[in-house]
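Annotated sample (chain length 179).
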Amino acid sequence: MEIGKKIRDLRIGKGLTQEELADRCELSKGFISQIENDITSPSIATLVDILTCLGSDLTSFFSDKTDEKVVFQEEDYFVKADEEHGSQIAWLIPNAQKNRMEPIRLTLSPGGCTDPDLPHEGEEFGYVLQGRVTIHLGSHQHKAKKGDCFYYEASCTHYLENKGKTPAVILWISSPPFF
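Output written by the structure step:
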């Protein structure tokens, strides 16, 4: 681990010069320079002081947490076709079940539908990108067309159906992840 580089990055991120950091930590500018260039290593107590002045702590500083991926392309998607129901689900975010919501792109062929979902904890949101869809919530039906969105608590049996003559494409989000 490059302690010096991480300290330098934190210092620059806070908009401090080496001299300003040294003054705040009651150290010399030369010592801060030696640490940042990995010429010397600070004691744990000194490192704690430096990190405190930089708004950090030992746990965060030594965490190997890598930046989470933010943008996903089509090659990242996991796609599953269900010929029997005339549907295709594309999981847009890999491993989204570890998150608080799970977006999918659902494509329903004419006459296609999703499997009925039993009541569960959470909420579901959908935005119709193309075509028309019927949302079945218990004994109630709701229609949505391109540009419409829907939102409901998943407290009753529910499923989507395409009663139209053209494919329907829906951006569907479940929170917590359920798909």
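Annotation: The chain has a mean pLDDT of 91.
Annotation: The radius of gyration is 26 Å.
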